[in-house]
Amino acid sequence: MPHPIMFTDDDPILAKVREFALALPDATEVIAHGRPTFRCGKMFGNYGGSVKGGVRHEQSLLFIPDPTEREALIGDQRFYIPAYFGPAGWLGILLDDDTDWTEVAELLDASFRQVAPKRSIAKLDAAGQ
């Protein structure tokens, strides 16, 4: 039995996440477990998540933080440790109309760089992004 879809395509926050995630070289979107995921070989972003125990954050982005920044991000109330992904080092950021999209782009860039093949990272660097 497939997972139910847990997003709507007309969500303006999702549209912004897609804009930044799919601008990365060789990035694709795949629906997995009912949610949009962003991949370049491996997954580097997931739209929507929850905290262990059931609190769902439909408008959030799960990502792999730069290891040197993880602890500082955890101290910010906009970030949370997501269920399932948290033990692997992932974090979630809550998104809303006041979101700093430059920051989101930087978080996606850092996450992408940790999983993308070297050729895709080289394309990103060549583009000056």
UniProtKB/TrEMBL annotation:
InterPro entries tied to this protein: YjbR-like_sf, YjbR/MT2646/Rv2570-like
Pfam family, one: YjbR
Name of this chain's protein: Phosphoribosylglycinamide formyltransferase
